[in-house]
Every structure is written in C-alpha cells, then in structure tokens.
C-alpha cells in the first residue's frame, strides 16, 4: 500500500505544545479545580498532587496550547520546511489552516505525523475550535469512514496491528539508522524553555528536526533512499 503513495503529496507535520499557564499557582480557582479533577486520573501514587502533575498539562488541549507547528513537503528536488510559531496561538493556527486550504486540500493529499492520530491532529483541531478558527478540509473527519480520512501515522504503521505499546520517534530513527542532529532539548523540556527562557527559536528548530525525521522514517517504510541533507530548505 505504501508503495502506491506519492511522497510529494504528503504534508509532514510536528507540533510543540505547552500549558496555557506557566504553573499551577497562576491558575484561577476554577481552573485549579478543573485541573485537580484531571490530575486525579493521572497520578500514579497518593503522594502526587495536582501541582506536581501540572508539567503534563501541555499535552491536553483543554489545558495546553500550540506554540509551534512545523510542516514539511517535497517540492521537486527540495524538501521544504515551514514553521508557524509565536506567542499568539490563534494567529499561528490561522496561518497553518490557510496553508492547508490553499495547498493541501486535494483528495490526493495526505497528512502525516508520528503519533499524529492520537496527538497532533486532534490537538490542532481542538485548539482551532477553541480559538474560533475554521477547520481546514484535511482536519474535517466527522462522519467520514476510516479509509476516507487522509491521515498517515508513522507510529501506527510501525505497530502492524499491535496496540500494546508506544514506540518513540527517537527510537525508530535509531533503529533505521536515520541521522538526526544532536540536540540539547527533548519534548519534556519545551514548556520550561517557553515559559522560563522564552526561546521560541530553539523550540522551532527542535520541531523542524522532528518533521524531517518523520519524513525520513516514512521513506524507510517505503524502502526509498533518505532525503539528502543538502535538499532540505527552510522557508
């Protein structure tokens, strides 16, 4: 099936998210109560309170927000990567939606991410609804049959029907020998870098690296040569 896919019709994405508030203490009483209810389902022992668990708030669309979306696609000999990032989530979501509607709304286009079906795609869609941004065609999946949804997920493809565990992008790039730049950042650090260091450029660079890694991983699944470093263009 993968051999029948036109790689140039795929848009690869990765997102970085953070909690809407910098810490638990900055929440209003209403939101402290709401987070406490959520945290009660997350804690692994009786000693873990909602304050300690708040560093996980960024992975839930009700308590988190998108700070960067990086998108990559093949254009001729170039693999182009564009990022939408900033302090204003509504603006970056609108810009991303505009790009999808203008350039990736054909029935032949596909959206691809690692763990995208469980995280990236629904998180973006939920935050668009919260920010009153019209959902682009590629994210309008309500009422569609599974085979009508144009979403690829490199983690799901790796499972081959085995739903027992999560396989990270980092592990799979190592398994397939995909070269990735050495980084001093991982996903668990994005919230701190955003709220304490205000370094959106560092977050953007990390996000772009993962977009290329997802594209390279799919190339391996398709038994195609990797994208050459000199072919990658940041736009």
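^ structure tokens above, recovered residues below v
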């Amino acid at each position: 099936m993968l051999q029948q896919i036109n790689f140039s019709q795929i848009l690869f994405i990765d997102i970085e998210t953070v909690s809407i508030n910098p810490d638990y203490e900055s929440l209003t009483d209403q939101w402290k109560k709401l987070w406490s209810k959520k945290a009660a389902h997350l804690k692994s022992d009786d000693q873990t309170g909602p304050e300690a668990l708040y560093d996980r708030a960024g992975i839930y669309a009700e308590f988190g927000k998108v700070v960067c979306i990086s998108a990559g696609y093949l254009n001729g000999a170039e693999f182009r990567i564009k990022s939408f990032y900033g302090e204003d989530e509504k603006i970056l979501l609108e810009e991303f939606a505009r790009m999808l509607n203008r350039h990736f709304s054909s029935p032949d286009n596909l959206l691809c991410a690692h763990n995208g079906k469980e995280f990236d795609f629904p998180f973006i869609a939920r935050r668009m609804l919260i920010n009153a941004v019209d959902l682009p065609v590629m994210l309008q999946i309500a009422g569609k049959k599974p085979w009508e949804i144009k979403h690829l997920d490199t983690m799901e493809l790796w499972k081959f029907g085995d739903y027992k565990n999560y396989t990270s992008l980092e592990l799979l790039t190592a398994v397939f020998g995909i070269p990735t730049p050495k980084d001093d950042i991982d996903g668990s650090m994005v919230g701190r870098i955003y709220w304490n260091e205000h370094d959106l450029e560092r977050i953007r660079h990390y996000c772009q690296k993962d977009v290329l890694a997802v594209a390279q991983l799919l190339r391996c699944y398709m038994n195609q040569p990797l994208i050459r470093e000199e072919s990658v263009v940041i736009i």
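Residues 83 and 205 are 9 Å apart (CA to CA).
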